[in-house]
Design a protein that fits this description.
This protein is α/β, with parallel strands linked by helices and about 525 residues long. Helices cover about 40% and strands about 20% of the residues. The protein has helices at about 20-25, 30-35, 60-65, 70, 85-100, 145-190, 195-220, 235-240, 245-250, 270-290, 360-370, 425-435, 450-455, 475-485, 500-505, 520-530; strands at about 40-45, 55, 105-110, 115-125, 135-140, 230-235, 255-260, 265-270, 295-305, 320-330, 375-380, 385-395, 415-420, 440-445, 465, 490-495, 510-515. Strands 6, 7, 8, 9, 10, 11 and 12 form a 7-stranded mixed sheet that branches. It has a 5-stranded antiparallel sheet with strand order 2-1-5-4-3, with helices on both faces. Strand 16 (about 490-495), helix 15 and strand 17 form a beta-alpha-beta unit. Bound molecules: adenosine-5'-diphosphate.
């Protein structure tokens, strides 16, 4: 109990020696024996002595605080407080003692070894048969684990709320950027070669909008609303295939090493997003290390997270127990200051100079890892630098080789009829303009019902190109399923800038292009769908 103003006690101490009674006299008493034996830490103080000292403590109290009986008895409880103890909570307890009332608080206390614990403290005055105040009784409980769990939950809820907000904004931005980028592409194709000024202007708009699109993708990734196209792959091959880009990111003056486990398990992830995540972490490491002595190491290994909640277990990492592929990136930079370690995954958190960091890189990594059923953590490397760990759940099955876009068929101009379905007016108009520009014959519908009406009148469409998220009951996946059933000769291409678990499941069996898409990319995907052997039989 915090210090008590002994001088304010209006009673003269009764003649009995209460300390002796508490220490010896009551030992025959069954309740006293129980108090001594209980695992709940308990103390008794004497308000009639100066400074309200502790006159009794049980073994559970010495165990919780690390002090011996001799160190405790005779002292005021304030020795449990430290610099981070909330003064207003201390004042609350002091007031209760002065006014002889019960009080229950949660207070940060310090053990003898200097470590802290959250103490659920209950203090109550004890009166004798004549209604005279005799003692104060304090029961305590170390509730650090509960407080930590609450803090973690609070942190998770905050991330969820920020994620919802960013996801909503990013979704709308995606559509705007789709319109800007789309018309830029159309303009670019029309500007005469000699018109240098117009060409420069178009290129500047295109560059700025592309940067906006990258930021939007990162926001969507953080909000876990990004359309993930996962496939079974081995992270070792991803690190190896990605080597040239990683080498270029790191540069010649910093050593980049790889320690890849033999027999690494496979995982089911979106390779493009996984590469982005790795690139972000390696890029940060590059920024953190010194030019000539910098060392960055990428390691892969199989790990088994056990059931236990302590130490290295899955629960401690907020992951389900089980098998994971762990990818770590260690550097020998200054490391991440523990004071900011729980903030670095927040969107817009950066310690870099204005214009150098957006604070979205690790937010994107965090969202992507969560969406992939894994987790990203930060710690300290053997060199005292930062150690980032990515945990991907193990997947069963054999890996598929990633298709090499360079080997795919060259894009050709189409002459086919396309039924485009898009509820947003501007995006729809743009899509129509893009497709017409590519030589397709386009009919635009604004929702699934309208599209089915068009098909009922005229089924001669080679391609259905539909947005996934649409109002009016049936979404793009539902429409695709209906068209596949009733018009099997019509090929299907879906588009979205937004992911949703329910939609994700249904959309997996269709080809998909992410928004915002560019003119060339759209043509390539349409050709891939239309020219696929057996696509329209
Ligand atoms: P940005 O790189 O734009 O600042 P990030 O989200 O990628 O945004 O990173 C957030 C912050 O995390 C960085 O500004 C930096 O303070 C810290 N950080 C990330 N990686 C490292 C590292 N390898 N070493 C030290 N600090 C790091």
């Amino acid at each position: 109990m915090p210090d008590h103003e002994g001088g304010e006690t209006p009673h003269t101490p009764p003649p009995r020696d209460r300390k002796a009674e508490a220490q010896q006299g009551g030992s025959s008493d069954i309740f006293f024996a129980a108090v001594k034996a209980t695992r709940m830490p308990m103390i008794v103080t004497d308000p009639h002595q100066p400074d309200n000292p502790i006159i009794f403590c049980n073994d559970a109290f010495t165990f919780m605080t690390g002090y011996t009986q001799a160190e405790i008895v005779g002292s005021n409880c304030r020795f449990l407080q430290g610099p981070e103890t909330d003064r207003s909570v201390v004042d609350q307890v002091r007031t209760a003692i002065r006014t002889r009332e019960e009080v229950a608080v949660e207070i940060l206390n310090y053990r003898k070894n200097g470590s802290t614990f959250w103490n659920a403290l209950f203090v109550s005055p004890v009166y004798d048969d004549d209604g005279e105040l005799v003692y104060f009784f304090g029961s305590q409980l170390d509730i650090s684990r509960r407080r930590e769990a609450e803090d973690a939950l609070h942190e998770a809820q905050k991330m969820e709320a920020v994620g919802k907000l960013t996801g909503g904004i990013a979704h709308d931005f995606n559509n705007l950027l789709q319109v800007i980028l789309g018309y830029v592409d159309i303009l670019e194709a029309r500007v005469a070669d000699g018109d240098r000024a117009s060409r420069r202007a178009v290129e500047a708009i295109s560059g700025a909008a592309s940067r906006g699109a990258t930021l939007t993708q990162q926001l969507l990734a953080f909000a876990r609303k990004q359309e993930l196209r996962d496939r079974l792959l081995n992270f070792n091959s991803l690190v190896t295939d990605f080597r040239p880009i990683l080498d270029r990111t790191v540069g010649d003056s910093v050593a980049l090493r790889r320690q890849l486990a033999d027999n690494l398990w496979n995982c089911r992830i979106d390779p493009v997003q996984a590469e982005m995540a790795l690139l972000n972490i390696v890029g940060n490491a590059r920024d953190a290390v010194d030019d000539d002595s910098g060392r960055i190491t990428i390691t892969t290994r199989n790990v088994l997270l056990p059931e236990d909640a302590d130490g290295e277990g899955g629960a401690a990492l907020k992951l389900d127990a089980g098998e994971y592929v762990q990818v770590t990136v260690a550097d020998n930079g200054p490391g991440v200051d523990p004071a900011i370690a729980d903030k670095i995954f927040d969107p817009f958190f950066t310690t870099k100079d204005m214009g150098k960091g957006t604070g979205l890189g690790l937010a994107m990594v965090y969202g992507f890892m969560r969406q992939s059923g894994g987790l990203a953590t930060v710690g300290t490397s053997d060199d005292g630098g930062a150690l980032f760990s990515l945990y991907f759940p193990r997947a069963s099955g054999a890996t598929e080789r990633r298709s090499n876009p360079a080997l795919s068929k060259p894009a050709a101009h189409g002459v086919e009829r396309v039924l485009m379905v898009e509820d947003q007016e501007e995006v729809g108009e743009l899509g129509r303009a893009m497709l017409q520009d590519l030589g397709y014959d386009v009919v635009l519908a604004h929702n699934a019902r309208e599209a089915l009406d068009v098909l009922a009148r005229d089924a001669n469409f080679q391609l259905l190109f539909t947005d996934i998220l649409m109002p009016g009951g049936m979404n793009g996946v539902g429409l695709a399923q209906a068209v596949k059933r009733d018009y099997p000769r019509t090929a299907i291409l879906l588009t979205t800038g937004f992911a949703d678990e329910a939609i994700d499941e249904g959309s997996r069996s269709y080809e998909l292009i992410r928004k915002p898409y560019r003119r060339g990319e759209l043509n390539e995907r349409i050709r891939a769908v239309l020219d696929k052997p057996g696509a329209r039989t």
